[in-house]
Amino acid sequence: MTEAELGSGKGGSEEMSLKDKGNEFFKAGSYLKAAALYTQAIKQDPSNPTLYSNRAAAFLNLVKLNKALTDAETTITLNPQWEKGYFRRGCILEAMERYDDALAAFQIALQYNPQSAEVSRKIKRLSQLAKDKKRAQEVQNLRSNIDIAKSLETLKSEMSEKYAAEDCWKDMFSFLVETMETAVQSWHETSKVDPRVYFLLDKEKTQTDKYAPVVNIDKAFESPHTHSSCFSFLRQYAEDSFSGAACLIAPKSIIAYPQVWKGQGSRKWRHGQHDGFFVQFESPLLRKLWFISSSNEMGKTLCRDPEVLDIGAHEVLPRLFKEKLSNSS
């Protein structure tokens, strides 16, 4: 705060002396002493807007924001045509992170002093802060309200058609949604997911002491050899565990082979250099593949909606279950 920003005010010599002493303490960074001197001056001249404006500035630096705001409002009441009161109000509301209200105050200040470069700078800065705050809230809402089921609505009807004679499609759908939502939450919290295959085990047939519902596949994508070995193991595991479905989660960053995002024509990749992870759903009647891309928004990791890929062109693993004909007639 420069000396020029502190109002000069007029009054008796003693009042001037108190105010000037306050200004000296203010410039030296002794805001508490400055505020005390402005208070003494106000007792002698309670209708002087400059004194309230100066004390508001001192309270602002002491982070006594409610007191500062009260003084700014009094400044405006005593002299509604003086831009300094609105400027003080704007600075205090900015400190309170009430950016929209602060912006309104600075805009009034500019009306009374259109030449003020400082007020113009504040308006520009506050406009950006208000926009950033709104976007940060939107990002937080998107991160908190993960609704994979909504994104997979069309898959639900496709599943019910494929498995028309059975209710098992509902279990499969819930299994897929839960697996994907867990992966998205992990990505939001840590910016990574572990490469795994989740299995929907049979409640009656699976030997649960022998077969776990999750298999780690850390080495699966190191080379064609590890990929082939892992696939053979998983296919046998799916059969021996009597699993009804499986869901693979694999971060793009760890896949050395197969780099399914490389290629032209039908294999052309449409997601640029975005980081993210693959989700591949496997069942005897239905196979699906998605890529969930990630971006950094307002300093936070944000997953985009799952985007369907052509599994024939981009499959991360070959078919895990022996193909069956649809149960529907």
Automatic annotation (TrEMBL):
The parts of the chain that form a coiled coil are none
Superkingdom to which the source organism belongs:
Eukaryota
Q: Which Pfam families match?
A: TPR_11, TPR_2
Q: Name one GO molecular function term.
A: Hsp90 protein binding
Concerning InterPro entries, the annotation shows: TPR-like_helical_dom_sf (IPR011990), TPR_2 (IPR013105), TPR_rpt (IPR019734)
The TPR repeat ranges on this chain: 15-48, 83-116
Q: Which UniProt keywords apply?
A: Repeat, TPR repeat
Task: Tell me what this protein is called.
Answer: Stress-induced-phosphoprotein 1-like
The protein's organism comes out as: Durio zibethinus
State which gene encodes it.
Answer: LOC111291543
